[in-house]
Amino acid sequence: MGKDIYFDLLDESIVSNIKEKNAKPNKSIIEHTNDLLDVLDLLWNLGYIKEERIYNLIQKACVYHDVGKINKEFQKRVKNKGIKFDENKEVAHNVLSLYFIDESKFNNKEDYLIVSNAVVNHHDYCDTGLEIREKSEIIKNLLEGFEHKKVKKIIPAKIASISQDIDAIKIKGYLHKCDYSASSGYTAEYKNNFLEKSLENVLNKWKLDNQDASWNELQQYCIENKNENIIAIAQTGMGKTEAGLLWIGDNKGFFILPIRTAINAIYNRIKKYISSYGGNLEEQLGLLHSSSLEYLLSQNEDDKYDDKDEYIDKKEEKEIIEYEEIAKKLSLPINVSTIDQLFDFVYKYPAYELKLTTLAYSKIVIDEIQMYGPELLAYLIYGLERIVEQGGKVAILTATLPPFVKDLLSKNINFKIKENGFTDKSKRHNLKILDKRIDSKDICDKYEENEKLNKSNKILVVCNSITQAQNLYEEISDILGNKNLHILHSKFIKGERLSKESEIIEFGKTYKDNKSNELDKRSGIWISTSIVEASLDIDFDYLFTELQDLNSLFQRLGRCNRKGKKDSSENNCYIYTQIDERSFINGDKGYIDKGIFELSKEAIRLWEGQISEEEKIELINEHLTMDKISKIENSYYITQYKHTYDFIKNLTPDTFKSDEVKLRNILSKDIIPSPIYHEYNGKIKELEEKLKDKSLNSPENKGEKIKLQNELKKYTVSVHPNHISNYYRALKNGFAIRYDNVRVSDYEYIPVIECEYTELGYRLKKFANQDNINTNTSDIYHFIF
Questions:
Q1: For residue 393, what is the enclosing H or E element?
Q2: Which of 6, 143, 489, 658 has the largest CB neighbor count within 10 A?
Q3: Do residues 175 and 211 both lie within one domain?
Q4: What values do phi and psi take at 693, rounded to 5?
Q5: pLDDT digits (tens, 9 = 90+) for 433-452
């Protein structure tokens, strides 16, 4: 990179000024700009910028972006922190930088406007057009003595008119990337030169046990179509994670999943693969979700040796915090993330172009797409369309994909689709369809029959709602007792839920150990909700489930005879097709789309006996088509999808600020249930006291503070805010007991509310003055999981 670019673009006197005047307290404008140009060359050398024209335009944007800082008022402020910005005699430097951009240095007007857009909007300090129109005298005074260009009052409007063009977004996104990296000192991107070798090592290890081991048909398909946008439907056990990694190859990539537990599991799996090749994990793999730092610190805590001293612990905590910060800056080559961390750019908040541009030189793998509701699906599909438009690549890898969702995905993206998917004629599941409500007696009869026959007796029960799961638990307990009876859903305190997840994974394993092919045979019943559909790797002998829709049903089936190693000549899956009418969406009540439910019921109602993986896909393809979905009167799913998609597509940029954006409309609040507060009062008080220590506010103690807060939050459960309001109404009227809030920090308190909490988990307490609390569709996650 030749630094003579400055003399190519700027008057000689201006170059002299930017050498002398400061951009930062300890850096001149030209030194800071050189830092940006170094980042730009890094991106170019990594192949993340492919066109020379684009590179040259970013280079110009970098040179011009901070020239406006040469003005006297800014120089006063940069040298004296006590001086504040005075709008009566100062204009934001990004506006002033526009006056140094020489249109004659560009091949055409469009390129001039593209660079001007990036420069003038690289900060969101003001309304540029308004400043230029109304502060002409101030601008004239600030630029006095400097060789500069005239800016016509029409220019801001022309800049705005091209701001959403593909190249304009790209140049602005890269400028943000260069500027943020240069300003904060973090590495903008680390090279992916390890993934393909890591996967090769994994395959070689498999060959030690089986010399014929090789990548399967799905994985070969992903290798062969690395440069294509693909949709691959593959049955459980086909190795979709490995397939996605092979498709990414030695490129920057993102693995996106809907649920944190699934993300943590995939992160650990990829981490294991990468470690087989060596290298520095902190420069290779990132974890991105709302509690990723807490998870990483807890993993470190679990890995500790007893002889580690406090200094080593502090050093490791600091490294983990820095590692998580790098991941959040999207600098790492491979990332495992929720949609929330990445696709908020669809709201077009100021500087959203940075995220979009980064994703656009990456490869995006979407797993478990069937788990997204209509709103999240709209965000996802619109976001993918923008990414592909900018040059990114997308792979949809999933066990099930309804044709109507495939149609929505394919509307504006050209996918290469393996029409018949990657399924076979293997028959792992033998269905019995029962046109009635789920029945505890059926479950108990099957359990007792298996016990008499001394058969492996792992029974999984999946309900559509927590309430139904709790009711079934009580009914089965009355018949069988609760010796071998367990329940798992999201309304357990966090610590207990983690413990239960570990227990169900251990109980639901296929083989006795990793080295044996002997099936693990046990006896017990686990009752759960949709939480088991995508996040837990479990393999039960029998499944009893309510119908919700075909996608959900086939995901649930995948938790029974998961590896296909068990006999399925007799019924092993019992599906109940009558559900509570209150479950159907009606206004702001309910959580199941009745039309999709009825189509699914029609598809499955006549099926009896064994069903192959191919036949499952055929059922979905026949019954969940766009044509059939569109004919559903007032279909909630399609209506909500179109509403959300149209809203974000037509959204005017900068309408929202980044901190105003929230993709998941989940109404929830952490509380400590009163029975838990009583049982663990001593430990809760001890943690609360430790968190009052002011020394924890220092940067070096951040890790310790987060660990203490995380420990305290193990006693919490997330509930709908209506439940808290209901408690406070009861409190006001003298029907409830008052508890002090538990302090987490100066700004965060956890309410303790009077409620029921037993082996069934959290339940709302019915006070004498309680109103009927309805759970609307925005609360679907917390109601059904």
A1: strand 393-398
A2: 489
A3: no
A4: -65, 115
A5: 999 999 999 999 999 999 99
Per the CB < 8 A criterion, the answer to whether 505 and 536 are in contact is yes
CA 428-434-440 angle, 5° bins: 95
Q: Pairing between strand 523-528 and 761-763?
A: unpaired
What's residue 75's pLDDT? 95
Are 501 and 525 members of one domain?
yes
Q: Encoding tokens for residue 189?
A: 């991107």
Average pLDDT, the chain: 91
Q: How far apart are CA 179 and CA 168, in angstroms?
A: 16
526 phi-psi bin (left φ>0, alpha ψ -120 to 50, beta other) = beta
DSSP run (H or E) holding 725: helix 721-732
* CATH code, 535: 3.40.50.300
Average pLDDT over residues 268-294: 89
Q: From the CA atom positions of the chain, what is the Rg in Å?
A: 29
Query: How much is the pTM?
Result: 0.92
Task: Indicate if 495 and 349 belong to the same structural domain.
Answer: no
> Residue 521: inside a domain, yes or no?
yes
| Whether residues 139 and 44 fall in one domain | yes
User: What six digits make up the tokens of 152?
Assistant: 């016509």
CA–CA distance from 628 to each of 44, 140, 537, 605 (Å)? 48, 65, 33, 17
- Domain, as residue range, for 219: 195-417
For residues 203 and 179, state if they share a domain: no
374-393 residue pLDDT tens: 999 999 999 999 999 999 99
DSSP-assigned states of every residue in 494-559: HHHHHHHHHHHHHHT-SBSSTT---B---EEEEEE-GGGTTS----BSEEEEE---HHHHHHHHTT
Cα–Cα distances (Å) from 184 to 176, 567, 721, 723, in that order, read: 12, 59, 39, 43
In a domain, 619, yes or no: no
User: Considering only CA atoms, which of 731, 669, 748 is closest in space to residue 739?
Assistant: 731
